[in-house]
Amino acid sequence: MVTYVVRHSIQGGQLAEFRIDELAQASGVSVRNIRAYQDSGILHPPKRQGRVGIYSDDHLARLRLIAGLLKRGYTATNIGELLRAWEDGRDLSNILGLEQVVTGIADAAPSTYLTADQLRELLNTADAAHDTSASAVQAGLVEHDGDRYRAPNARLLHAVATLIRAGAPAQAVFAFSAQLRAAVDTTVHKFVTAVAADILRDKQPDWMPTGTEIPQLAEYVSTITTQTESAAAAVVTHDIGRYLDAALGDYIARIMPHLQQSEKQ
């Protein structure tokens, strides 16, 4: 379990502080690579408390940014050049604040790993005719990872499991989650692409935000994220209410003739 000290960020939130092994656990980057990034200058050194180095969410955000760039095929040298250009003449706290906003968004929907037994227990259902684990894979809720499963979105998996345990038909829940993911993915991709294109409109190919623009951009990205999530939740909640009301109306219409017949008898 990761232990940490809390302090306030420049956005008014809270930042966790880690020892190097805790940072490695939180970021998925090995202690060896963390030290190598420090030696190469692409990760800033920790602050010292006695003989212990203390890392913050600033470092966690930077490690996630580095990991993302590595996945895109950039080398450590490329990344170093980019980050040095990124920091040149800019306030470091503002730069790290923007990195936290962008890389921290995934924290709202973290991935998790489960054994086969844990997945079966989580998706426990009385519907013994269906293999819920296989259905979860087919719906994209989990994927095989060696002898265990990886859930890319732990919040979604647990929401699905809660619906099933509450009594909702398992196959209907799996179908709903798969269709929702597909629809949202397409819509969000188009929206984020449009937002990114708008930010870069009229900008030169080598444009980097100025020290003044960075905190404004961080606030904008944060607003885009929170309000897009609110908009999606509002649509889903509205439609659930609308269709539940329609279902109730259908139910009343179905039983009304029987009630009227009973009154005549």
Main sheet, how many strands, which sense, barrel?
A: 4 strands, antiparallel
H/E element sequence: EEHHEEHHHEHHEEHHH
Helix amount, in percent? 55-70%
The CATH topology label of the largest domain is Multidrug-efflux Transporter Regulator, Chain: A, Domain 2
Number of domains: 2
The pLDDT mean sits at: 82
Helix/sheet category: alpha+beta
Number of H/I helices? 10
Number of strands: 7
Shape: elongated
Identify the CATH class of the largest domain. Answer: Mainly Alpha
What is the CATH architecture term of the largest domain? Orthogonal Bundle
Strand order of the largest sheet: 1-2-4-3
- Radius of gyration, Cα only, in angstroms? 24 Å
Keywords:
alpha+beta; Multidrug-efflux Transporter Regulator, Chain: A, Domain 2; disordered N terminus; 4-stranded antiparallel sheet; 3-stranded antiparallel sheet; 265 residues; 2 domains
Outline of the structure:
This protein is of the alpha+beta class. 63% of the residues lie in helices and 11% in strands. The strands form two sheets. Strands 1-2-4-3 form a four-stranded antiparallel sheet. A three-stranded antiparallel sheet has the order 5-7-6.
Topology:
Elements: E1 5-8, E2 14-18, H1 20-27, H2 31-40, E3 47-49, E4 52-56, H3 57-71, H4 76-87, H5 92-104, E5 112-115, H6 116-122, H7 132-138, E6 143-145, E7 148-151, H8 154-165, H9 170-200, H10 213-264
Antiparallel strand pairs: 1-2, 2-4, 3-4, 5-7, 6-7
Helix pairs in contact: 3-5, 5-10, 7-9, 8-9
